[in-house]
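Table S5 (text form). Sequence records supplied for joint modeling of the two-component complex.
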Amino acid sequence: MWGEFQGDAGVFWCKKPKLLPHHWRLYTSNGYGKRQSTESLNANITHGAAYTQMDAKEFLHKMHTGDATVWDELMPMLRRIALGACHDLGVRDELKHDIVQDVAMRVFTHWQSYAAKSTLSTWIYSIARNRCRDELRKRVVRGDNRKPGDDSDDNMSDTVSLNQRHDPKLELMLCVQQVLAELETQGPARKNSRRMIEVLIYWVEHSPSSEELANFLNTSVQAAKQRKYEIRKHLEELCRRFCGNDDCSLQFNGGPA
Amino acid sequence: MNRDEEKTDDLFDRLAGKPPRNDAKPNPGAEVLREAIQAQIETMHAAEQASSDDLTAEQKAQMDVIKHQLLEQGLIGVVSRSATDANSKQKTNWLQRLQALIFGTGWERPVALAMSMLFVIAIGVQVGLPPDSDPDFIVRGGGGARDNHIQSIEIF
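The corresponding structure-token record, covering 413 residues in total, follows.
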């Protein structure tokens, strides 16, 4: 659960809209994490408006008890995630409404498979990603993702490689999203350790130092380096599986992209 | 720094949006991976701020259509069968929970062991007790025991 708070230094998001302990990690609006005293923020939290979204426990409780208000509370977040996920994958067209509907159906059909191991929004995002990925895959297979200039090639010889007519960026996006979807399904390697996808998201969001990463992983700097190595090896394996290349860069016409 | 460390640092530098340390080859895969994760982060942050007040009347109407479909199909607003089953399961699950505590490694283990020992002893004592005798044959007081026994023989 996240709340937005207006502080002296900008807009902050933090977990749980209540008074914050001093060691709490805050997130600024530009996406970089900062450790900051929360004394000044607490006053703003007390008086400021906080957006609260439904959490996993509340969602499961409402679903178990047949409380139909679950839709009214979840809908804004679900809609934003469904549309956002498709936008992230480059699916931006009139199908948006159908996709929101499909994601909603999947969420409320498969809610019993949700074990609350990840946040509710992360789970919905993974459902939305899968739906949008299906759409993207269809387009790549149909050749709908041709570059605009390719229309002039209608009388092109059949001997021309199929890949030449495709927008490589979308194909690259498709295989990278397959890698991320696969990572999302994987649990932690060890008990009480972070999942690889969590480490990657943290890394991209915060660009931490070795010490900060070690702190995030609750381990030593050396062990954090080893974890990075393990993640790279695993990423290479997934890139090979989905993109045919160690570094997730697709190959076109027999050469590097 | 060995080759593996270099490759790892290079990938994580790219994921962090930093330029590669050496004259490394371009890596479009890592760039797209970074962009995809960044987009996901931004979408999640935006979703956490979403409110129904932001929707237009048309968008709200579209969402209402979905809500009615969910209600018609019984996907929301219906008490889950698993919820009713859960109560009955809870009654049988105490044994599994006790088992988990006994074979666990936490501080609860000795307590669970002691409790289960007490439980077993209580059952053992209960089973080991003689069945209730006829009150007429219960002998109270040591002195008269012999006489009572003789009396009962005489009756039979």
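Note: Chain A touches chain B through 63 residues (CB under 8 Å).
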